[in-house]
Amino acid sequence: MPSYKLTYFSVKALAEPIRFLFSYADIEFEDDRFNRDDWPKIKPNMPFGQVPVLEVDGKKINQSVAICRYLAKQCGLAGKDDWEAMEIDATVDTIHDLRQKIGAYHYESDENAKAAKHKVAEEQVPYYLERLDAQVQKNGGYFVGGALSWADFTFVALLDYMNYMMKPDGDIIEKYDNLKQLKQKVVEMPAIKSWIEKRPQSDA
């Protein structure tokens, strides 16, 4: 079994889908978290100056989506054929499109621009969630193929982060029953429930 070390800030955010996959597959990993004050000295040692970074037997790789896909293939969550794999990839990319639109508002420092981006986010978030909710309904309670995939883990694991960025708007999936049911199924899985109970607490 390879040794795994995941390096990220001391929050959930982009690393949490990776942690969900490790937990689901019962793969031991080092959860290396650091404070933002330490980032300037850590950044030069990270590929492309980015995190999360996964080390596999000492070899470093960046890009959270690529890391998730790698782990999903190992634990049977990457689709039963090439078409499903592509559907999962497209869904994950769409989820990250949504996250980035929310992030554009949250991380904007100019107050005038922030107000405008919040208005855009308020319009765009329902647009995405309505379609994602319909996709889950169409596919038997999951995003793709009527079965659990890493797209489901990606969405549920990123929800805390997206809700945090949309403050004070509240729970972004409150009006979407299929997405709420999907979240409940994922967080009640024994391996995921155990991870959530023991992980360090953070807002995002």
UniProtKB/TrEMBL annotation:
Species this chain originates from: Harpegnathos saltator (Jerdon's jumping ant)
InterPro entries xrefs: Glutathione-S-Trfase_C-like (IPR010987), Glutathione-S-Trfase_C_sf (IPR036282), Glutathione_S-Trfase (IPR040079), Glutathione_S-Trfase_N (IPR004045), GST_C (IPR004046), GST_superfamily (IPR050213), Thioredoxin-like_sf (IPR036249)
Protein name (database record): glutathione transferase
Pfam families: GST_C_3, GST_N
Catalysis performed (reactions): RX + glutathione = an S-substituted glutathione + a halide anion + H(+)
Recorded GO MF terms: glutathione peroxidase activity; glutathione transferase activity
Residue ranges occupied by any GST C-terminal domain in the UniProt entry: 81-204
Keyword Transferase included in the entry's annotation: yes
SUPFAM superfamilies registered for this protein in UniProt: GST C-terminal domain-like (SSF47616), Thioredoxin-like (SSF52833)
Subunit composition and interactions: Homodimer.
Keywords from the named record: Transferase
Family to which this protein belongs: Belongs to the GST superfamily. Sigma family.
Domain (GST N-terminal) ranges: 2-79
One BP annotation, GO: glutathione metabolic process
Top-rank lineage group of the source organism: Eukaryota
PANTHER family from the UniProt entry: GLUTATHIONE S-TRANSFERASE, HEMATOPOIETIC PROSTAGLANDIN D SYNTHASE
EC numbers for this chain: 2.5.1.18
